């Protein structure tokens, strides 16, 4: 009896591992296997047109390097990620400060703001696409009524405006997400410090810079990093609104991966771009993990 | 935490995990069975063949076959009842060979078929686009219909040109279901308002008409030329031919960037500069604006008539709103050209029920179903007897489309399995030139070098 009990005795760490085991199996099947498979695929010539594949070494990466459009695509990705992260962050921050004042109806407004976030990306894309439609879009109609333009602007058909419109749609979608994050952070700002500062004559800007910002720095960093990662992954908005055009003006890494895989049937190339994409996201993820570790330590 | 509790918890987790894994295993088997019900018939035969000889004679089980028909029309709202009617007719007459539909939007169907084919998922019959044939044939997804249909029956019922459109390297991979041309259509209501009384025959006349339409106001798009999406490439390639150019010469050399190509692209740019066309115009946008009387001319197939009907336009009123015309030419007397358009029906190589799938196709392209499709969806039949029927011949819109189809042609990129990629390159470079990001020559040179790189893969 004692012997059999001893055979089943587990250390704390073994027991912990056992508890994690089911999750690890799911992780391996759902995340690890596809990641490893697509990494291998990036070194092959696999396409959707034939079942077999051959190892081609770095050929897909070399082709990417020599692709005259790759730099543009990379810059478009940077522009989209920066724009679609910073703009909703600023608006979300302002909105969370407004809502934090606790005026009558602020709770209702907070719930209402979340509607944008709940809507599917494809629905948001169609909504904004129609608003910016050059012929019958409400934006052109409004600008005409206000006398700001004399003829319709082809927003999504112009390389000058298309990216800005896509960023605007993404901003509309992203504001609630940032608002929720930052609102939570604002709740943690010590009230007594704020009140003391006010009594000492601190204005809004001073209170923000000296008290609110230092208290919220960790949450600001986390929200920006996660927002940037989310925008790097953004696909549906650009695809539905512009298909990456006109003239590749809104082609980001995510669009190019889809196009390579499902328009050019080139899974090897798509995986190579995907790997570059993962590496870029890895930089943000590393920042995030370092930040989390520092927070845990402190 | 006591040891006993820990032991119990550990056991629970292990049992739960095992149960989950076994459930997944059986679910996988079940789903394989469900998704591949069509296999049942084939497997039953296989099992019967593998049964030991001394086994007691079992009663012959009724062979039941489930056929999966993939495509897009059965998922496209206006056509859902029509497709359902066709399947119901078959299913009622063939209770042991039931057909069910599996569909996606048109622009996702090809990729879904390729993915499913590579992962060996059940598909028996397919609705495919004429331009996808080379890609699908090269992927090995398609069965040789020459082995499934009687040659005499094919010859008796279809025009040789219709069958040729379904052949790659002499092998018949597809039967035509509906065929016409993507031709120019005009809106007589709008044209009348602009004072245009006859259809333009030459590009000069066409431009003059566009000018008159433009004068109607800023809301009017005189020509709903496609400037967005890779499918714009088909129209671009026909205009290239009209101006004496092409993407490839007969030897397969890229000639897109020759003088005729530059002339075509310069013409595109001039139309944009004059406000006759707009950027960001996909076929769906052109159709929507046309239905609202905001577009004077655009390119569409016989589908345009189907859309009129499904949007509530009475059959008798279609001609007041939709008139197909041959594409204008450079000089009076030049041969008119339009893009051949159509939907095919194919049998998949992975299907264990190829003959039943072929029988189903035979019924779908047959006269009764074809005329039903024509009367309710406006799509032209392909079977000789159905085309000759007075219902088709006496329809003014359809007879015009049939006439234009005689001068229709495939485009160069149709001959390549990388068609989608080549089309995308052509459209991107045309867009770049139209938006003054590049000169016409530079854009076409870039297109040529990108096409060459794509074909080297």
TrEMBL record, chain A:
UniProt keywords (A-Z) are: Cell membrane, Membrane, Transmembrane, Transmembrane helix, Transport
Give the family from UniProt: Belongs to the binding-protein-dependent transport system permease family.
PANTHER family tied to this protein: BLR7065 PROTEIN, SPERMIDINE_PUTRESCINE TRANSPORT SYSTEM PERMEASE PROTEIN
Q: Which PROSITE patterns match?
A: ABC_TM1
Q: Where in the cell is it found?
A: Cell membrane
Which coarse location class applies to the principal site listed for this UniProt protein? membrane
Protein name (database record)? ABC transporter permease subunit
Q: Any idea where the ABC transmembrane type-1 domain is?
A: 74-288
How does the protein associate with the membrane? Multi-pass membrane protein
Organism listed in the record = Paenibacillus glycinis
Question: Where are the bilayer-spanning segments?
Answer: 15-36, 74-99, 111-131, 161-186, 207-229, 270-289
Q: Which domain of life is it from?
A: Bacteria
Q: Which Pfam families match?
A: BPD_transp_1
TrEMBL record, chain B:
Keyword Signal recorded: yes
The leader peptide range reads 1-27
Which keywords appear in this protein's UniProt record, sorted alphabetically? Answer: Signal
- Do you know which Gene3D superfamilies this protein is assigned to? Periplasmic binding protein-like II
The segment annotated Disordered runs over 30-62
Task: State the protein's name.
Answer: Extracellular solute-binding protein
Q: Where are the transmembrane segments?
A: none
Keyword Zinc applies: no
Q: What are the Low complexity biased-composition ranges? A: 38-53
